[in-house]
Automatic annotation (TrEMBL):
Organism in which the protein naturally occurs: Salegentibacter chungangensis
Annotated TPR repeat ranges: 348-381
Protein name in the entry: Alpha/beta hydrolase-fold protein
Family: Belongs to the esterase D family.
Annotated Pfam families: Esterase (PF00756), TPR_8 (PF13181)
Amino acid sequence: MKFKLLIILLLLSFVCYSQKPIKIGESIEVHSDILKEDRMLEIHLPKNYIESNKTYPVLYLLDSFFNFPHAVGTIEYLQLNRLIPEMIVVGVRNTNRNRDLSPPSPQLSKEEKERMGAKGEADNFLAFLENELIPQIEKNYKVASYRLIVGHSRGGLFNIYSFFKKPELFDAYITISPSLWYPNELISQSFEDVFKNPSELNSSFYLTLANENKGSMRGNVLKLSGEFENYINKHEETGLRFKYVHMPEEVHGTVGLPSIFNGLRFIFEPTQYEIPRTKELIIAQGGPKAVIKKAVDYFDQLSEKYGFEVTNEYTLIDLGYNFLKIEEFRKYSIDAFKANVDAHPDSYDAYSTLGMAYERLGELQNAKTNYEKALKLVKQTENPEWEFYKADLENLEKKMNSD
């Protein structure tokens, strides 16, 4: 009996110990004078948001009741793999989708009007975003000026309408199987009639369509895609970027996740820097020091363009490793890794890789100093692989003691 009681107590204590909620965000309620109602928001913040001094781009996610969990998971996965920057996600829950996400449309048939009920108040919702929600987010959170919006179905229709109506409000759009069966005079116009000054357009626009073939929706999506491509091809001065992807293997309900995944990769594609990997290419760019400077300058310019820090950390690490592979340039790996430490003094990987380069070049004391710094920094985080950094230091100390 005592043994059974002990087992029960142990199991209970294990359950109590192991129960720790996994949070992907928090919900808050805001009041809108424009919409004359309260609206629920779902907010996701980057992992080290509280301790960080950085500012972050903001992704405004429509239909967040359906999309918030998978969108946040996708974003965290892409960040983990260094394909996109960290960002704040603001999910906007609906109260009446037809009303808020549909533009005005006198062309709707009687049957469509009766089926949809309240509709055509996208201008009000756009005013809510521009004049109430965005200012409130920018007042209360550490945000950069770069804004993205994601809309699916009726939300995709709203994305297109907001791009035509106020193209300066968002910097990037992920528009997923938009309900372009819905008629609207503004978005039916040609780009030439709406966007008179191509140099003022600097958005990235990613558009997808699932296996929808009925009615006018597919034809109108293809027409819109053609408008984008023709406009960009005609006007070299425009900063507009566009990509259309047909996803026939997806249905309307499943197209959202792959669209967000690939859309974010497209939007932040310029942050993926291709370094010169051969001796000949490095010499062609002026040699190792010039290559390092070129990379640093590129990311400085990119950060200025996006309005937040686009990290050069992984590019400088990549450069350092590449220099180590080329006998004539091995010593320049130190320059690349030092530039990384200078740019990211709180990064344990920056010190660890610099220590590794010193070790390979035989400067063991310098290697030890940097390994110690890396271990100290990594132990302050939740990185479960901190013992690898400890092993690097211990193995180096054994080498130094054996010499």
